[in-house]
Specification:
With 287 residues, this protein is an alpha/beta fold. The protein has helices at 12-23, 39-43, 52-57, 69-76, 96-108, 138-148, 163-189, 196-210, 214-223, 233-249, 258-269, 280-284; strands at residues 5-8, 28-31, 47-48, 61-64, 87-90, 112-119, 131-136, 153-158. It is elongated. The protein binds NADPH dihydro-nicotinamide-adenine-dinucleotide phosphate.
Length: 287
C-alpha cells in the first residue's frame, strides 16, 4: 500500500512536492501558514489540515518544506508529541549545524528524523535529474525510500544529519562562484558593446573546454604535495593581477577577483610562491 504523506509548507517547492506525491497516488495532507494556499491542493484531491497538529496526525511521513531553520523549529516543537511514530523528512534548506541541531532535538524527543537537501528547482521535482540528498537516520531513509524516490533521484549521504546540507552548500558555493564569473566577464565585455548573451556563450564554450581539468586539480589536492611543477602561486599572482588591472582599465570593479589574489598573496608571503597554486586550499581552513 502507498504510504500516507503530509507536506508542511506550500511555497513554490512545497507545492511542487505535494503535487508530485498526489500524482504518484499518495494519500496527501497539506498545511500552510497562509491557509489560502491549500485550496488548489484540496481541489486536486489532497486533504487540507487547519493546524500543524492535524496535518501531522494524518500521515506516516511528514515532509517539512518551510522557509528556514527558525520556521521549522517554530512549527515542529509544539507538535513533538504528535510526531512520535512518524518519519519527519525536513527538506527545508538549512546549514549543516542547523540540520544537526534539529536532528539532536528530534532524538531527544524520540522522533525519527531525516534531513534532506534539494538539488533542483520546483519544476524539476519528479524528474530523474532532480537530485535529493538525505542524511541522518538510515532506518528512516529506508522506510521512506520509495516515497522519496518519487521526488527524483534519492541519495543517502550518511548518519551525520548535516551531510546532505553540507554537500548542498558546497555545490551551491561552486555554482555561486561560477555564475559570479559569468557576471564579471559580462561586465568587462559590455564596456565594448558586447551583449550579455554573446559573452555568456563565450564563457560557456571556454568553461566547457576547461571543466575536464577540474578532476586533475582535485587529484593534486588529494595527493597532498604541492611540488607539482604546474602552475605556481607566483605565476598565478601575476595572472590575477593582470585580470584585476584589465577589469579596472575598463572601468569595472575587480572585487569578485580580489579575494583569490589575496589568498595567493598570503601564500607568497609565507614562503609558498613556488608551490602549486592549489595550495590555496590550505589558506581556506580556519584554524
Ligand atoms: P517560498 O518562498 O515559495 O515559500 C516559503 C514557504 O515557507 C511558504 O509556504 C511560507 O508560508 C512558509 N513560511 C515562511 N516563513 C514561515 C513561518 N515563519 N512559519 C510558517 N511558514 C513559513 O519558498 P520555496 O517553497 O521555494 O522554498 C521552501 C524551501 O525549499 C526553502 O528552504 C528553500 O531554500 C528550499 N528550496 C527551494 C528551491 C527552489 O528552487 N524554490 C530549491 C531548493 C531548495 P506562507 O505561504 O504563509 O508565506
Amino acid at each position: 500500500p502507498k504510504r500516507t504523506v503530509t507536506v508542511l509548507g506550500l511555497g513554490a517547492m512545497g507545492s511542487a512536492i505535494a503535487q508530485r506525491l498526489r500524482d504518484t497516488g499518495h494519500d496527501t495532507t497539506v498545511w500552510n501558514r497562509t491557509a489560502a494556499k491549500t485550496r488548489p491542493h484540496a481541489e486536486a484531491g489532497s486533504r487540507a489540515a487547519p493546524t500543524v497538529a492535524a496535518a501531522v496526525a494524518a500521515s506516516d511521513i511528514v515532509f517539512v518544506v518551510l522557509l528556514d531553520h527558525a520556521s521549522v523549529r517554530e512549527h515542529l516543537e509544539p507538535v513533538a508529541a504528535d510526531l512520535k511514530d512518524r518519519t519527519v523528512v525536513n527538506l527545508t534548506t538549512t546549514t549543516p549545524n542547523q540540520a544537526r541541531d534539529t536532528a539532536a532535538w528530534a532524538a531527544e524527543q524520540g522522533l525519527t528524523y531525516l534531513d534532506g537537501a534539494i538539488m533542483a528547482v520546483p519544476s524539476m521535482i519528479g524528474e530523474p535529474h532532480s537530485r535529493l540528498l538525505y542524511s541522518g537516520d538510515a532506518g528512516a531513509y529506508e522506510t521512506a525510500r520509495t516515497v522519496l524516490e518519487t521526488l527524483g533521484t534519492a541519495e543517502f549521504e550518511g548518519a551525520d544529519a548535516g551531510l546532505a546540507s553540507l554537500k548542498d552548500m558546497a555545490l551551491l558555493s561552486a555554482m555561486d562562484l561560477m555564475f559570479a564569473g559569468y557576471v564579471q566577464a559580462i561586465a568587462m565585455m559590455r564596456t565594448v558593446g558586447a551583449t550579455a548573451v554573446d559573452t555568456a556563450e563565450e564563457v560557456h564554450a571556454w568553461l566547457a573546454a576547461m571543466l575536464p581539468h577540474g578532476r586533475g586539480l582535485a587529484e593534486i589536492i588529494d595527493g597532498g604535495t604541492y611540488d607539482t611543477g604546474g602552475q605556481s602561486v607566483d605565476f598565478d599572482r601575476i595572472g590575477l593581477a593582470s585580470l584585476i588591472a584589465a577589469s579596472r582599465e575598463q572601468g569595472v570593479r575587480a572585487d569578485l577577483l580580489e579575494p583569490h589574489k589575496k589568498l595567493l598573496d598570503e601564500l607568497a608571503a609565507t614562503g609558498h610562491g613556488a608551490d602549486d597554486w592549489l595550495r590555496v586550499i590550505e589558506r581556506l581552513t580556519i584554524h
